[in-house]
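Hi L., both proteins are below.
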Amino acid sequence: CYLFAKNGAKVVVADSDLKKCQKIVQNIKGKGGKAIIFCGDLEKETENERLIQTCLKGILNININTHNIN
């Protein structure tokens, strides 16, 4: 997500760990990027729907969707 933000993309950082999201978003914004947080359990279908709505409200469109599960 750092590379996308560095190149001008608006990024949604999604994870169930709010502190982790906050750290990543703070880092992106600190380098001049744009990012918002979505905190939720993406194993649940309803949370995925809520993620999409958050993206559309905060960013207006979705061009790239990547999943990085550790």
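That was the first. Here is the second:
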Amino acid sequence: EFAAEAGFRLGSFSEFSLLVVVLGFSSGQISEQASQLVQWVTILSFVIFSYAVVMNYQTPIGTSERLNKE
């Protein structure tokens, strides 16, 4: 159970992917369209996974008594 929760919490794309994409684009290794696609997917995964964690796991900003963790 702990491993599943940890995997879910860490499952989104990371900020590192944004850095790699910017470097790839600036060096001409990837196109502007590919860069934008990765950036959008990364930002979307931040939003979705953040929402899912707050709604399903205990956090200091839990949405109910069951999900609040002091």
